[in-house]
Write a structure and sequence with these properties.
Elements (H helix, E strand, L loop, with lengths): L3 H12 L7 H28 L11 H61 L8 H4 L3 H4 L27 H100 L30 H83 L6 H4 L8
Helix pairs in contact: 1-7, 3-6
């Protein structure tokens, strides 16, 4: 706070219309800006250190974690190898089964093709017993009623055969019965041969299918055995891991128990619980105390503190009174400065208006001069055609 003489000089300067210097204020603002910038820079560096995960200290057992990760990776590698071996074995089995299935399908196809060939060769349409009834060329194949005029079958009256006259009916009927009997025997024989052939094919197919089923059963048994062996290995490994974990937990619990007992002993014999006042005094100075060992003050110390508090309260009241007086003086100074600033602002505003008026008049004058100059240029200078002197002006200046 300024003294009375300084306040009086400030009032005189404000009354006389003087202007307060601001160079000190500007330098102080620059210093504050530099301090703020330095704090921001330090804060950014601190954030970069704190938020960088590589620079932080790991708060767990890193060696144990690395060992667990190594064991897990090794187990995953072994499991991957077992899965790959099982997949290869399964792929081979699948390929064998596919080969067997293709062989069965080929045998079925050959059987169907042989049956179709037999039908195409031995069961054609013209070989059927009722073919003579269904033959569309029956009339063309039949013998005509008269071949020549000397046909012995024609009677003396040159009349052809009358209705109801059929002398060869009995012979023809017997021949038809004999032919039909022969056909029936042949068809029965062919049918029996076909049945025997089909039975043989079914027997071969059943034997092939039985072999495939046996081979598939063997592959399934081998797969079950390999799975059982893998399960046993996994079970043994899990049991070993469980035993190791139990042993590790037991050792850890014993160490924690020993640490707890040691901590209890240390606390029982420590100066904190035994109320040793000698431990509360700092080694730096006898009037300073250690915060975490502080046991309270003596009555003499309490009384001196009370007296000091009363003295400080009185000093604070006197200081507050002086500050109020100084604040009143500053209010007078600020009021005088405010009035001076208002007067200066009004003067600046008046000068700005005067300058604006002068600028407007100058602009009007320049506009009038430009208009007259354009009239001279366009009406006198540029009135004629472009000649050689116009082009000779280029390249004579840097503008």
């Amino acid at each position: 706070h300024p003294s009375g003489t300084q306040i009086q000089s400030i009032l005189e300067m404000a009354t006389a219309g003087g202007v307060l210097a601001t160079s000190g204020d500007v330098s102080r603002e620059q210093i504050e800006a530099r301090v703020i910038e330095r704090r921001r820079r330090l804060e950014d560096e601190r954030k970069a250190r704190i938020f960088n995960a590589k620079q932080r200290t790991i708060g767990i057992d890193k060696q144990a974690l690395e060992q667990q990760i190594h064991e897990k990776q090794r187990w995953q590698e072994e499991e991957r190898k077992m899965d790959q071996a099982f997949a290869d074995r399964l792929l081979v089995t699948e390929q064998r089964v596919q080969l067997m299935e293709r062989e069965v399908q080929r045998a079925r196809k050959e059987n169907l093709m042989s049956i179709q060939d037999y039908r195409d060769q031995m069961q054609q349409q013209h070989m059927r017993k009722e073919w003579d009834l269904n033959d569309p060329l029956t009339l063309r194949k039949d013998r005509p009623a008269r071949v020549t005029d000397d046909d012995p079958i024609v009677g003396p009256a040159s009349l052809q055969k009358f209705a109801g006259e059929d002398l060869e009916y009995g012979n023809r009927f017997r021949k038809q019965q004999q032919q039909q009997a022969i056909w029936v025997v042949e068809q029965m024989s062919e049918k029996q041969d076909q049945i025997e052939q089909e039975r043989e094919m079914e027997r071969l197919f059943a034997e092939r299918q039985s072999e495939i089923d046996e081979r598939r059963s063997e592959l399934e048994m081998e797969e079950m055995k390999s799975r059982a062996a893998m399960n046993y290995a996994v079970r043994d490994y899990n049991l070993a891991l469980s035993e190791a974990k139990k042993e590790y937990e037991t050792i850890r619990k014993m160490e924690e128990m020993e640490d707890a007992l040691e901590e209890i002993k240390n606390q029982i014999s420590s100066d904190t619980l035994t109320e040793n006042r000698a431990t509360t005094i700092s080694c730096i100075a006898p009037h300073r105390y250690i915060k975490y060992h502080f046991k309270g003050l003596d009555p003499e110390q309490v009384r001196s503190i009370r007296e000091e508090q009363i003295r400080q309260a009185n000093e604070k009241a006197n200081q507050k009174k002086m500050e109020q007086e100084e604040d009143q003086n500053w209010d007078l100074v600020q009021e005088a400065v405010r009035r001076n600033l208002i007067a200066g602002e009004r003067e600046v505003f008046r000068r700005k208006q005067e300058i604006a008026r002068q600028v407007a008049e100058e602009q009007r004058r320049q506009a009038e001069e430009a208009r007259k100059r354009k009239e001279v240029l366009y009406k006198q200078v540029y009135a004629g055609a472009v000649d050689e002197s116009f082009f000779s002006q280029f390249g004579t200046s840097s503008r």
